[in-house]
Design goal:
Radius of gyration: 19 Å
Mean pLDDT: 87
Strand order of the largest sheet: 2-1-3-4
Order of helices and strands: EEEEHHHHHH
Number of helices: 6
Largest sheet: 4 strands, antiparallel
Structural class: alpha+beta
Number of strands: 4
Low-confidence stretches: none
Number of domains: 2
Shape: globular
Length: 162
């Protein structure tokens, strides 16, 4: 899974987060490799725009601490965060997330208000609707579990160990 964040930089140096407009360049930053790329490569750009994008990504996720703060904003999925953990810790993390998902599904089921007229569509399975309805609770739970593991450098993929 590609774990990337992106921004657009105008020729005047302003950073945008929406689609390319008015000559903006799209810069991508891979959280898995900690490398920045520009699409398409053959586009004319300035060193100033490159530096602005690099500075933007550094401010957002330039250190493990900044990455953890960025993750707390809920902008990265459970699977994107999992890919930033060492293989052993990734499995432990996904196991914890599955437990949270089961608990949220059971809580939803216990309400006795199924989302379908004839009952729950996925009895005994994780229900996406239950996760969506829990909203921020689910996000806080999986980000907290990830942060608990990621805070220890030994639990990170190699590019984030320092």
């Amino acid at each position: 899974m590609a774990v990337t964040i992106f921004c657009f930089v105008n020729k005047d140096g302003s950073v945008r987060f929406e689609d390319e407009k008015n000559g903006c360049l799209k810069y991508e930053f891979s959280l898995k490799t900690r490398m920045m790329t520009i699409e398409p490569l053959e586009v004319e750009r300035s060193l100033r725009q490159d530096a602005i994008a690099r500075n933007h990504f550094d401010n957002l996720v330039g250190t493990p601490e900044k990455l953890m703060s960025f993750a707390q904003l809920g902008r990265l999925s459970k699977l994107e965060l999992a890919d930033l953990l060492s293989p052993e810790k990734k499995q432990a993390y996904l196991h914890v997330c599955a437990g949270v998902e089961r608990a949220l599904t059971e809580t939803c089921t216990a309400k006795g208000e199924p989302c379908l007229e004839n009952g729950c569509a996925v009895e005994g399975e994780i229900c996406l609707n239950a996760l969506l309805e829990s909203g921020e609770i689910y996000t806080v739970a999986y980000v907290s579990a990830w942060t608990y593991l990621f805070i220890n450098p030994e639990n990170r993929v190699s590019v984030w160990k320092n």
